[in-house]
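User: Could you check the structure of this?
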Amino acid sequence: MAMDHGAPTQPRVAGDGTGGQRRPSSAVAGYSIMMILAACSYGALSTVLKLSYAHGQDVRDMTAAQYDIAFVILWIMSLARLRRTRFGRSQFLILAAVGLCGTGSTFAYYYSLTALPASLAIVLLFQFTWMVPVIDMAVRRKWLGVPKWVGLALILGGTLLAVGVGREAWGHFALWGYVCGLLAGLGYAVQLYLTEYLSAESSPIVRSAVIITIASIATAFIAPPTYVFKAAFLPGLLLWGLVAALLGQVIPMVLISVSIPRIGGRMASVLGAAELPTAVIFAWIVLKEAVTALQWSGVVLILVGMIVSEVNWPSRASH
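Assistant: Sure, the predicted structure tokens are below.
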């Protein structure tokens, strides 16, 4: 993998009015679908993890295994592409930052789950939907339009309904749990936003391999790979780890590496909200969890919010 020392790559945002190159609507739709599929993959992961825990797997073992197995898969996929891939110093630093933010977000979310009910932890994580646009406004100094704010409000309101808000007395939990939940959302927001600045010309698979390498090293300090000594004694550990690696790392990471440099982090944050409806649907179908009418209305509200936020509404000047 060759290294050069080029300048930072500017984001290639599809028709966002920020100076990026406008792409055909069909191309934008294709990259948007990739981002939605990445979010759906993350959503399906929660069901897989619940099933693995029910079969006796440990949270730390599953976390370490999914990163390490994804590391092996992505580097095998990258071997034929290494000679054709060049990263400047700034690009490598962004890749490292993306990997560290992703790992930090994962562990902050897992630790928030030890102090908070899952419903509240998810709500805090999903604050990334407004954090990315706020980061974008601070960097570009360009205010969001009304449809974007309406869409974000619908997504956040739908999130509260979809997780069953009101079932718990949320004021009686440790403050550090709330802090971890918000840090998880912030880490994911920064990860999405920084990915926008990665070069769209380099191989997304090699980019993903570098990101997962940084993430795996960071993970080893928090969750050492002791599972390698247990694999022979815990039936299914490597199989569950493989499924988790595919759904939680390989598939979404490659799709995100392809799509976000083309559509921008702001659009990705909205499309990423598809994760929660997917998690609810998979839990209902696979785990047979009861889903109330209020939760279904939340799922619908999230989808409506995504549409409202991303549809190109006619401006007043066009009338």
